[in-house]
Task: structure prediction
Amino acid sequence: METTYKKERQKRFILPEDQIPTAWYNVVADMPNKPLPMINPDTHTPVTEDDLSVLFSREAARQELNTTDRYIPIPEPVRELYKNYRSTPLVRAYGLEKALGVKSHIYFKNESVSPIGSHKLNSALPQAYYCQQEGVTNITTETGAGQWGAALSYAARAFGLELAVYMVKISYEQKPYRRSIMQTFGAQVIASPSMSTRAGKDILTAHPNYQGSLGTAISEAVELARITPNCKYTLGSVMNHVSLHQTIIGQEAELQMHMAGEYPDVVIGCFGGGSNFSGLSFPFMRHVFSGEKKTRFIASEPASCPKLTRGVFQYDYGDEAGYTPMMPMFTLGHDFSPANIHAGGLRYHGAGTIVSQLLKDGFMEGEDIPQLESFAAGQLFAQAEGIVPAPESCHAIASAIRRAREAETQGREDVILFCLSGHGLIDMASYDQYLAGNLMNYVLPQEEIDKTTSKLEKII
Amino acid sequence: METTYKKERQKRFILPEDQIPTAWYNVVADMPNKPLPMINPDTHTPVTEDDLSVLFSREAARQELNTTDRYIPIPEPVRELYKNYRSTPLVRAYGLEKALGVKSHIYFKNESVSPIGSHKLNSALPQAYYCQQEGVTNITTETGAGQWGAALSYAARAFGLELAVYMVKISYEQKPYRRSIMQTFGAQVIASPSMSTRAGKDILTAHPNYQGSLGTAISEAVELARITPNCKYTLGSVMNHVSLHQTIIGQEAELQMHMAGEYPDVVIGCFGGGSNFSGLSFPFMRHVFSGEKKTRFIASEPASCPKLTRGVFQYDYGDEAGYTPMMPMFTLGHDFSPANIHAGGLRYHGAGTIVSQLLKDGFMEGEDIPQLESFAAGQLFAQAEGIVPAPESCHAIASAIRRAREAETQGREDVILFCLSGHGLIDMASYDQYLAGNLMNYVLPQEEIDKTTSKLEKII
Result:
């Protein structure tokens, strides 16, 4: 009766608390070509730590521009709170392998077990901590699907800060539970675009009924931070210091893959602004820079918001209103308005400066996933592994499935590692729409990309 | 700058996979007074394995009546799927201790990290497995808040079974995301009472607009299983075999408390039918039976459904229509209609036979928690530990907070252990109601209890 499984197989790999990495990995120190600098839009001169610390905490600004230190210590109070959920498990996806009938080994780093349900807490905690240490009392931010906002709400509470969150309107309506979570932690949540900022008013008068985008929400949060005393702005992706904080993911994963006695041939993350992709990938990429390893890195983006595969490499703003410094990025243009797909966290026009340079230099690839393929992959994964993935993470799963099938066709047994950035338990309305057959693939005409990218100033 | 935490403190205790217990603990074998038998309502004779296996799988029926084997091996395919999420972490709640300002040590066993978000998977997997092994193709069940239904939906999928779930109507409406989760795994979900069964029709014609209860949903699921070929019924609580499967929780917790170098003075679980309370408590209770330890066990129930503290000890049915055998239980009467509180999983009229005997014999206590106190405890816990607890689990948290404050007042430093049976991320509509001040405490008049309990046949 119990002969199905002959031998005990280890499935989940978890690090003892004393082996959790105590420093973040700063990939810029090892990059053969450093990213081009962020610049001041008026003078076109590189931004300084002083410029950035008007907006961000001083320590975040320092980390943003740090190109030399390979490792940056994680402050002890942050490490203490990391222990609430770290290390997250590395899991061998035996169920998915069986469902696909492939010989490749598929692993996922399960960031969905964070109390907030995603990897976003990894950067929310240090950002809130630095603000508190510097005497800041109020912080602002934006959130797309709500994962970042929920994480920061808890982090703000943990360090005694007041938080105002601009939540992209379409998500505010599609994901009311994420709003409630933020409120349960004590944050204020405002649907964006709102009438509370000039940026919000401008877009609402130009485009009534606009459903919002991350770009607009960032403008509103930045504006509010600027006009509020003792207030800083925080961001959940795109920036170098955010990717830095997320490298805890990949550093743990490398140790855990070692426990499993394997090393990945392919590393995959879904891609919005780049935070979970970067966090998982960069620690593995050090060994590619050094020539020790040949590993493939794939960033999975929605076909409806394809900055990596169809965007241009140019200086652009991080937000819709043009409040931020200009960054060298693969971009669809800062006033590109992404389709209302259900992976709200991936609806962003540009990629961070580090990732953009790495893509340009051929260290990584972008891959476009149509919406229906992403949900089909997510449902298959849910049925095989018992975890309902976030719509964002479904893109990474879809890429992992493509790789496993390719390897099978080509007679290879690859080791495939992807990041399960979050669970989808609060995104069930999206699954409802998928199961009811109401979702579609958005085909993005080239003219739309040309329209917004042609407006960009030619700096590079 | 980093002087706040002098010394590394271990926060989470996780067992290596090879130390996860390989057998369940059958408390009945050790009980000084065995529970009275379940009886056939017509003949008043004890039910047999054959009687029970009309409804349940043969192996579940066998386990239900097993009073002699202290340990029952966990089948290997079930252990394999347990490894997807077990061991669950034992966590020292430093944040909560600090928020309360107490010297007692508070620990929680975090069952919310199961992919389904609660402890229910621990019994769903073996129940589905036994059915599959015995050639069953279809199973039915009921679900209150939806935690059990979600878990069984995944388990049914894992073992290739068709599943129909009767979901209590009030929860079907309050918690649409749980319905979607079940559907994502491929289960059919029907709001109960429904017109698809005689039991449903009877209550809907007698009480139009009835919002449902677990008792009614059980009747519907039992009826459907009876009239469907090759179909068995499964249950997420109350029965002995369910408590048995849940003892994986307490066995792990004991090993993990040992890792932490402590032993609990008090063990607490919220209480609906008894599954998470029993699962955590029974393995610790063995040492009380043997005289080695003096430990206090507290079952936290909602003040609006107080079978342990205000119910009567009598033979009663497990369901509203009277389809099940009669069980010796603390009960409010099988046609007691609990108030529409938000902890849907605790809205059940009776306690299982084992727990009822243990309560009668003074090995454990019941404690009533008003609804507002439960949510206040839940929000405090969320802000302190970052995890939004299920409304059910909030009751256990409230009891833990009461114990910690009592100990403080009395100058003691107790070690308090409670079960975080699930997270509340899908219950945010309830938190919304709480935060908006729309919830109230239900004061249950004695006449209401008398009305339903006085109708019970006097067998004991």
In short: Residues 82-117+241-453 of chain A form a domain with the Rossmann fold fold (CATH 3.40.50.1100). Residues 47 and 339 of chain A are 32 Å apart (CA to CA). Chain A touches chain B through 54 residues (CB under 8 Å). The radius of gyration of chain A is 21 Å.
